[in-house]
Design brief:
5-stranded parallel beta sheet
Length: about 290
């Protein structure tokens, strides 16, 4: 069983699935993202430490069926305690092929699996619900209800809205600053400062999210003054359908994933020989 930890960071925890199987990547990960967990996939264990150094307190679930032997995996997990920056990571195992009773291969007095040891199983709905409860208990969401992404560096994230001013239709363009499946923050152009106010409904807005576009009705929740001008916080209308929110969530997930990969591009990968270290540590060799 995983150790409950609802007193996690207020902003929640990032969730990493490392060396994921097809079933996890194609089914579990999208479903958890849809349920508003901030989830990343990592192809190789050689990259995860660089990510964790930048994102302490994260949750990591490793597929231990390949890349390393069980003894080498244990040696790898042991190494987390040797570095202060990695000690706050909450680790666990999610295996496709582990048989009943084989979890003893990974048990070690120097490794704590706070996220538990799990098998994927045949029923992915059961797995998804189990993972949702696990991640919730581990404080993955914190106090936030929705995952959002900053769009400052995204060139093609724009909102277009047609206003009817003095019986003239005018198309306005606003830069999207950040977005979630519930709210959109935009920079207010000077030409719109008088026209946007709390409660104002912006009908049929065209949201441009890189290569995707979608139409949504938005309502001005609040206007904030910042050193760089005014920012409008817009709420998606309650009637906004699932397909629109799905497009937004997919954009958020892809942007976060790409940003995570870019953040470690210039870093050296983990080339430690954990199989050799396992021999040095005299771990049982299968």
């Amino acid at each position: 069983m995983a150790e409950a930890n609802n007193t996690g960071p207020v902003s929640g925890r990032k969730v990493f699935f490392v060396n994921t199987s097809f079933a996890v990547t194609s089914t579990l990960v999208p479903e958890l993202r849809d349920r508003e967990f901030e989830v990343y996939t990592v192809e190789s264990y050689k990259d995860i430490k660089n990510m964790l150094r930048q994102n302490p307190d994260s949750i990591c679930l490793f597929n231990t069926d390949s890349q390393l032997s069980p003894a080498a995996w244990v040696s790898f997990f042991r190494s987390f305690k040797k570095e202060i920056a990695l000690r706050s990571a909450i680790i666990g195992i999610l295996s496709d092929r582990m048989k009943e009773g084989e979890d003893h291969l990974f048990k070690d007095e120097n490794v704590e699996y706070k996220a538990g040891i799990h098998t994927v199983g045949k029923d992915l709905n059961v797995l998804t619900n189990t993972m949702e409860m696990l991640l919730t208990d581990l404080g993955a969401k914190g106090r936030r209800q929705y995952v959002r992404v900053s769009c400052f560096k995204e060139k093609k994230t724009l909102l277009f809205w047609m206003s009817d001013t003095d019986r003239r239709n005018i198309m306005h363009q606003m830069k999207i600053l950040d977005i979630s499946s519930m709210t959109v923050a935009v920079k207010v152009p000077e030409t719109l400062e008088r026209e946007l106010f709390e409660g104002k409904v912006l009908s049929s807005c065209n949201l441009v999210l890189n290569s995707k576009q979608t139409i949504a009705d938005l309502r001005v929740f609040m206007i904030k003054k910042t050193p760089h001008g005014k920012v409008a916080i817009l709420l998606l209308d309650d009637t906004t359908g699932s397909p629109i929110r799905t497009i937004i969530k997919k954009f958020i997930a892809e942007t976060l994933q790409n940003n995570m990969i870019l953040s470690i591009n210039d870093m050296s990968r983990d080339n430690e020989d954990y199989a050799e270290q396992a021999k040095i540590d005299k771990l049982p060799l299968e």
